[in-house]
Amino acid sequence: MPANQLSFRVEIRVTPREGIVDPEGQTIARALEDLGYRGVSRVGSGRLLKLELQAPSGEDARDLVTRMCEELIANPVIERYEVQIRSPETASP
């Protein structure tokens, strides 16, 4: 790792935007009802991605991850994403 780079742990949560059909969530809701779990409504599905990256600062890490999400990880038309970056001091092994 270059001397001016810090290591960050990142979590990215990707979920369908409000109003977008979520067939996986609907399937899970129906299956739960079929299994006898009553009272469950509005099941939402999504993806959780975890990665480690090197960047000069937390702000640079966030900018990099945002570009990754907008270019590849999420489809911004139908999905939203949330990014959580853990600084080197708070990242646990």
Offer a concise description of the structure.
The chain is 30% helix and 30% strand. The protein contains two helices and three strands; from the N terminus they run βαβαβ. The longest helix is centred in the C-terminal third of the chain and has 16 residues, at 58-73.
Account of the 3D structure:
The chain has 93 residues and is α+β, with helices and mostly antiparallel strands. The chain is built from two helices and three strands; from the N terminus they run βαβαβ. The chain has helices spanning 23-34, 58-73; strands spanning 6-16, 47-55, 79-86. The chain has a three-stranded antiparallel sheet, covered by helices on one side. The longest helix is centred in the last third of the chain and has 16 residues, at 58-73. The protein is elongated, with a radius of gyration of 17 Å. The relative contact order is 0.31. The mean pLDDT is 91.
